[in-house]
TrEMBL record:
InterPro entries: DUF1963, YwqG-like_sf. Pfam families: DUF1963. This is DUF1963 domain-containing protein. It comes from the Bacteria.
C-alpha cells in the first residue's frame, strides 16, 4: 500500500481499539520509516548499505574527530525511499553517509581508541552525517586510520513506528483514562497486537521512524532538548564487523526537525543508546 492509505489504515486500527479521540492523538506520534535487512538479488534500496566506501561529492572533506578520521558505517539512499517519506526530506537530498569514530572493532586505529578515552560517549563530535547529491556522488576511499567494513546491501521495508516506551516524546500526547494504570506508555501494551500489523516497524536496523532503546535508556540530546523536535535518521545495531561497545545498546543518528527541513545535515548528531 502507499503511505497515505497505510496511514489511514493505521488510524482506523487505533480507533477500533482506543476510540476515535485517543486514536487521533496517538497517530500524531506515528512516523514513517524502514526496516533494513540484508538485500537479496534485486532487492537493494538503491545505494543503501552497511559499510563499504563513502558516497561523497568531489571535494567534500572527510569528517574527523580530534584529528582522527571517522569511519563510514552506512549509506542511506533517500532517493529510493522518498516516495514513502513524503515531504519529510528536502527535495534532492540524495545520499546520506553515516560516520562514527570506530574505537571498538578489530580494525580500529590506536589513535581512535586514545580519542575515545578523552571524550564522553555522547560527545556529538563522535559522529557525523554527510549528504551527497546522487548525480554527483562518487565512491570515495577512506583515509588512513579510518576503518573500512565490508559492504552489505540493504533492502528497505516501509512502515510506521511509534516511540520506544522510554522515549519522553510520549509526554506530548494525552491519552487520558486509556493509560491511567500505565507508569510508562508502551505501544505493545496500548495495542497488544501491534507487532502483528504488516506496517508496524520494530527493527534492529532502521531508517527514520523512531529509535528503540534496548538498554532501557532514552535519547540523550543537547541541553535536554525534547525528542519530539528531533527526527531520527538511522538506527544501527551491532554488525559482524562492528559494534558500539559498552555493555549493550545500538547506534543512532538524529537531527533537529528544523535543520532537516533546511537540509542542514551539519546539525545531525549521534544519539547512541549505551551503558
Amino acid at each position: 500500500m502507499d503511505p497515505e492509505t497505510t496511514f489511514s489504515t493505521l488510524h482506523t486500527y487505533c480507533a477500533e481499539r482506543l476510540g476515535a479521540p485517543s486514536a487521533a492523538r496517538l497517530v500524531r506520534l506515528a512516523r514513517p520509516g524502514f526496516e533494513l535487512t540484508e538485500a537479496g538479488a534485486g532487492e537493494a534500496a538503491g545505494h543503501s548499505r552497511f559499510g563499504g566506501r563513502a558516497m561523497l561529492e568531489p571535494g567534500t572533506p572527510w569528517p574527523e574527530c580530534e584529528g582522527v578520521p571517522l569511519s563510514l558505517l552506512a549509506v542511506i539512499d533517500t532517493d529510493a525511499l522518498a516516495p514513502w517519506l513524503g515531504d519529510l526530506l528536502p527535495a534532492g537530498t540524495g545520499l546520506l553517509n553515516f560516520f562514527a569514530l570506530d574505537s571498538e572493532s578489530e580494525r580500529c586505529d590506536p589513535a581512535a581508541l586514545e580519542v575515545s578515552f578523552k571524550l564522553d560517549l555522547l560527545d556529538r563530535r563522535l559522529g557525523a552525517v554527510v549528504p551527497a547529491r546522487s548525480a554527483h556522488a562518487m565512491e570515495t576511499d577512506a583515509p588512513a586510520r579510518s576503518s573500512v567494513f565490508g559492504p552489505v546491501a540493504w533492502a528497505a521495508s516501509p512502515g510506521f513506528a511509534f516511540p520506544d516506551m522510554w522515549d519522553p516524546a510520549w509526554d506530548a500526547v494525552d491519552l487520558g483514562s486509556v493509560v491511567d494504570d500505565m507508569p510508562l506508555y508502551d505501544i505493545t501494551n496500548l495495542l497488544p497486537d501491534w507487532s502483528e500489523q504488516p506496517y508496524a516497524l520494530h527493527a534492529e536496523d532502521m531508517a527514520f521512524g523512531w529509535p528503540l532503546f534496548p538498554t532501557g535508556s532514552s535519547p540523550t540530546l543537547p541541553d535536554d532538548e525534547d525528542s519530539i523536535h528531533y527526527q531520527h535518521l538511522l538506527q544501527l545495531s551491532g554488525q559482524d564487523e562492528w559494534w558500539i561497545g559498552g555493555d549493550g545498546g545500538w547506534m543512532h543518528w538524529s537531527i533537529p526537525a528544523d535543520a532537516l527541513r533546511g537540509g542542514d545535515f551539519s546539525r545531525a548528531i549521534p544519539t547512541p543508546d549505551i551503558w
